[in-house]
Amino acid sequence: MKTIRIGIVGFGYMGKMHTLCYQNLAYFYRMPQDVKIELYALAAPHPVENLPVQFQKVYADYRELIADPQVDAVDICTPNYLHKDVLLAAIRANKAIYCEKPLALSLEEARDVKAAMEEYGYKKTNRMSFEYRFCPAIMRARQLLQEGRIGRIIQFNVKYYGSEFLDPLRPISWQSTKAKAGGGVLYALGTHAIDLIDWLIGDVESVYAVKRTVFRERPVRGENRTGKIELEDILNVLLKCREDVTGTLLLSQVAAGAGIDFAVEIYGEKGSLKFNQENPNVLQYFSCGDEQGPIGGFTGYKAIETMQKYGGEAIFPPPRVNISWIRYHVASIYDFITAVSGDRESHPDLLDAYRVQMVTDAVYASAEAKKEMEISR
Q1: What angle do the packed helices 350-369 and 191-200 form, to 10 degrees?
Q2: What is the pLDDT of residues 322-332, one digit of tens each?
Q3: Which domains does the chain have, with CATH numbers?
């Protein structure tokens, strides 16, 4: 029996999400009989009340958790400004790593992480939490693209809108502070989109970006004053990928009515693909080869039902059941655990996240310089 002991660093929103996934993997997947998952340790700087799971060890300092020889995998769910230090400590300790996005606060910090991996010859399984890669409709889109079903890609559009910062009275938090978040909507939402563009379309080669901060001041929690906001609420980007494929990336955290308003459109010479998180159970596929007729023939978009069709070891819920965002996280963590049990490489990994950070750095540089910026790979 191989026991994989998990150490969770940070127990906020995503710390709870990851813990929920580890706890319930055996419901969703036929787990290998020789692998046991143990939620072993938690590191949180402040006491956590009413823990939903009983950890064997609770540390106030993440360094103590990482130094614990019983911890096999470190799951990093801290605010962005702590990612680099926790990553470096986990790399030096040669632990498997699961990390929430983004990789770091800046490209400079990301380079430090990459350099540490090279310096210590780090080869353990590592994962960046780009969970949209584990949505069956997105997975099916990649299959169809690889099969050439829509031919040579011509253009694409990606939109990710939310409304988290629409309320001007929302107090300043670490998510709205440059020193702790590193970036605004680009880091919060755009990193997911850029990873999918790289994965589905190909490497981004250049960007031209325009950003806007709608609410430049917000209340300071517990004080009778406001503070300045340095991070963007809206970002519009023109992108060019390899082979001159062009596209747009539209991001907002001040879009009224938007929950997870995430959409991907890819247009090729032979057809097109569309995905929308408002109905994640289907992938829309249009083929130029469909039979045409005077009053329509059989042309039009086909809704390919992907639902919860993961195949393989997935056993629950049945494939016909509607899917949700939480299920993507479950699938990502299952893939990570199976990779750790086999001590093998798994994607998206920290180097995939490094490539995303190269693009985000160029996006900000473009917005400041008001000109197109190339990504040096």
Answers
A1: 110
A2: 999 999 999 99
A3: 2-130 (3.40.50.720), 132-323+356-369 (3.30.360.10)
